[in-house]
What we know:
Elements: E1 3-7, E2 14-15, H1 19-32, H2 47-57, H3 64-80, H4 82-88, E3 90-91, H5 95-103, E4 108-112, H6 118-127, H7 148-162, E5 172-176, H8 179-187, E6 191-195, H9 202-207, E7 212-214, H10 220-228
Helix pairs in contact: 1-3, 3-6, 5-10, 7-8
Amino acid sequence: MRRLVLWDIDRTLIDGGKVGREVFVAAYQAVVGSEPPRLPEFGGRTDHWIFTTALEWHGREAHPEIVAEFFVHLAEHTRAHRPQLLARGGALAGAAQALAALAGETGVVQSVVTGNIREAAYEKLSAFDLLGPIDLEVGGYGCDDGVRSVLVRLAHERAQAKYTALLPARQVVVIGDTPHDIEAARANGALAIGVATGSCSADELAEAGADTVLPSLADTGAVLRAVLA
């Protein structure tokens, strides 16, 4: 392993057709008994943070047992909503080509740092045939912690352990569509690549400290140059 590439999923590799919000509300209602009073912004956030924030707004304590129960229901509802995901979502332009091109580079390991729980990451990537080049075993997930920078650290540690390689932080590459992705990369000394396919502009990603900002993944050559720089 000479380079670890950590992809965000939603609005970076795929458009989920807003199915994720429906899944979240269904899982929340299953655990709490009613819908959340309001929803925080999802972009760049982790499922852990979104749930605990919504609970606080609901006047409920986010103790470990209820968080664990929520993750169980979230996984179940994610699997149940796969037909809606397939009908309304899709891979973003160039995502499959970028993943395949990087998979062909010697020493490059690809995984994810995502606000999704691991089961949701699997469902979303497999739904659009993007799972093949991704090693989910070493990813960082929204069930691991509420803070995204922790997920980058965990993924780095997991990859080094699995591939028995000491990898300098600057050879870790985080790719995402929000300032939260960029900030999480910078907090870990990783290379930060912004992709302006979400709700944030290229200027916002640059201001957050991205080393490179791409308008999309459509130009595979540009993706390779940014990742392998």
